[in-house]
Design goal:
It is built from 3 helices and 4 strands, in the order E-E-H-E-H-E-H. By secondary structure, it is α/β, with parallel strands linked by helices. Helix 2 links the parallel strand 3 and strand 4.
């Protein structure tokens, strides 16, 4: 399960907080949330502090969002490494 919450963080700005496992079934919902909330022209932050796991599709989405200008914040070392290096096989 994955919880997606929009927060207007006074320090980081508009933030989408993800909690749980970022897996294939939730990819479209996360992408949609980012697209809808980034329409306000301010840079979106993605709070990944509560993401416990990401499968290959989740990692690909995160890498794509970061490459597109989304700011990934509060990542665990594990998630940061996945974004940086991609999934380990």
């Amino acid at each position: 399960m994955l919880r997606i919450t929009f927060v207007d963080d006074p320090q980081a700005g508009p933030t989408i907080k993800l909690e749980g496992k970022l897996l294939g079934p939730w990819i479209e919902e996360v992408a949609r949330a980012v697209t809808i909330n980034s329409a306000a022209s301010r840079r979106i932050c993605l709070d990944l502090s509560q993401v416990t796991h990401a499968d290959a599709a989740g990692v690909a989405l995160l890498r794509s969002l970061v490459a597109g200008g989304v700011n990934a914040v509060r990542c665990s070392g594990y998630i940061a490494r996945l974004i940086e290096d991609g999934p380990q096989t």
